[in-house]
Structures are given as C-alpha cells and as structure tokens.
Amino acid sequence: MHFPQRKAQASVEYITLFALVSVVLLIASYYLYSNFQVQSRAFQARIAVDRIASAADAVASQGVGSSKQVSAYFPSGIINATARGREVLLVIPGPDGRPNDVYAFTLANLSVYQFPLGEGRYTFNVAFNANGNISISG
Prior knowledge:
This protein has one domain (about 10-135). Helix content is about 40%, strand content about 35%. It has one helix at about 10-60, and strands at about 65-75, 80-95, 100-115, 120-130, 135. The strands form two sheets. A three-stranded antiparallel β-sheet has the order 1-4-5, covered by helices on one side. A two-stranded antiparallel sheet has the order 2-3. Strand 4 (about 120-130) and strand 5 form a beta hairpin. The longest helix is centred in the first third of the chain and has 54 residues, at about 10-60.
C-alpha cells in the first residue's frame, strides 16, 4: 500500500490558532478575576461601614446609656479604618492601586476609634455616653 504524503500545515495552523485563543482567554479571565476581587472588597467594606454607622444611629436615637453590639466583616487589604466625628471610614486599595475611601456618616458624634486592619469578622460594642458621644469598642 502506498499512502500519499500529507502536509501537516492545517494541523499547525489549528494549534497556533488554539494557542492564540487560549492566551487571549487567559488574559481576559485574569483581568475579570482581579476586577471581581476589587469590587468584592469594596462591597464588603460598604456593608461594614453601613452596619457600624447604622448601629451608632440606633444607639443615638435611644438616648444616653444605650448600647448595642454590631458584627461586621472587614475585607483583606484595609489600609486604614477609623471612626471619628460623624464618619466611619475604611480605606481600601482601589482598582488602580490607589487608596479608595469607603465611608458612612452618623447622626451623632463618634469618639475616635481605630478599627483593626486585618481581614475577618469583628464584633464591636457601640454605646451612647453621657458626654453626648458614641463610643465604639471591641
């Protein structure tokens, strides 16, 4: 039997095309994944500051001597986390790596408090003091 010689050019073209498509898909999926991580961190930070500010407002509306415990999940990568004045603030890295402020305002003044910077769920005690300030501890 005699088989005619076949050139493998079509196979090489398919392999090259497959490799190029694979590289494009890898780059696109890496970009989408890192963008998802940034958006997820921002969403978790937004929930945390809103929960803490909401607890402070609830305590302020109940009057002096009232207190409440609030639990909040802090995402990874927090640069700064404070409560002071009428603001609860978490600073996280933005999509371009620059600091991004995530904050919520409260009805009453907050005593200065430095939140932990590590990732995880934390429980804080929020109390309305006789001096008219909301104190946060935890």
